[in-house]
Amino acid sequence: xxxxxxxxxxxxxxxxxxxxxxxxxxxxxxxxxxxxxxxxxxxxxxxxxxxxxxxxxxxxxxxxxxxxxxxxxxxxxxxxxxxxxxxxxxxxxxxxxxxxxxxxxxxxxxxxxxxxxxxxxxxxxxxxxxxxxxxxxxxxxxxxxxxxxxxxxxxxxxxxxxxxxxxxxxxxxxxxxxxxxxxxxxxxxxxxxxxxxxxxxxxxxxxxxxxxxxxxxxxxxxxxxxxxxxxxxxxxxxxxxxxxxxxxxxxxxxxxxxxxxxxxxxxxxxxxxxxxxxxxxxxxxxxxxxxxxxxxxxxxxxxxxxxxxxxxxxxxxxxxxxxxxxxxxxxxxxxxxxxxxxxxxxxxxxxxxxxxxxxxxxxxxxxxxxxxxxxxxxxxxxxxxxx
Length: 387
What we know:
Blueprint (H helix, E strand, L loop, with lengths): L6 H8 L5 H13 L6 H23 L7 E2 L3 E3 H5 L10 E9 L4 E7 L9 E8 L20 H7 L9 E2 L2 E2 L1 H15 L9 E6 L4 E8 L4 E11 L6 E3 L13 E4 L1 H14 L6 H11 L7 H14 L10 H18 L32 H5 L1 H13 L1
Parallel strand pairs: 3-10
Antiparallel strand pairs: 1-3, 2-3, 4-5, 5-12, 6-7, 8-9, 9-10, 10-11, 11-12
Helix pairs in contact: 8-9, 8-10, 9-10
């Protein structure tokens, strides 16, 4: 959408000496905006270990039931990507827990036809399937389809359809309440209970926990339930956005896992001490209070990471990359168009696995609201120019 001016970079590369004044400014920014967040990675590991231990308990507790199978957690969101825009005490570590169907059940993803939500919403229909045949039929479990109702009632626990579903559809609110109840009852069993006190915070579609250490240090954790679309990096999420509160059986398409994977790939390929995460955090702080969302900013930086060679994201180029980011955003505001990163993107890294049709799809416009409201665009440009 905008050409990134790289002439300054080539001039910088011609001189091996770093500009002392510019490096001093980078240092000032780093101190002023608390850009150094090495604790994020270590605290993320603490959270992942905690949830892994909780899931181990759940597997032993629910092994004979027909609740969803809880898969290993996936860290998502800015804190797990390494750059949270929030102050240290306000950081929330978000973890996706993918759900798989229990034995005798299958998940079928259906577009939400209620008409109230965008096309990126789906419902997850739960179907009972035959367990009589197969390579290794489970003799200890009765087949829901081929045993009588009396046998099932007498000898087997209730089907998923009668516990965490509303009608034939998986219910995000029921799953959240089930998991919250489990966490409260299982907390004393996990090793972390010796070091942290835990409180489950109110949440209707996820499990939010506040962990407090003896020293008073707090950790906020949010567990979000998800269902993978095929073998791709795109999931359906139980957690609604701030602007949308769909019915409890509606699940919203989420790109958080693909985004986290993208940033892991960048970290592996970028030069040591790459400035891309500091650029994100600094720009997020600069844009605080403006009408530009953190997600729009992150999308901008993701585009730039595929447009500008990773060798040009060395720490000494931080101010240039910040300038590029703000310039790109300004162009997008002028043109009322910011392309969603995962739709119709020819520069998509091959490591990211997308469902069929994503690459050929028309790019979604994250600034569509500005295209539909000229007054909102004028106000957004005015606010941006004040920064």
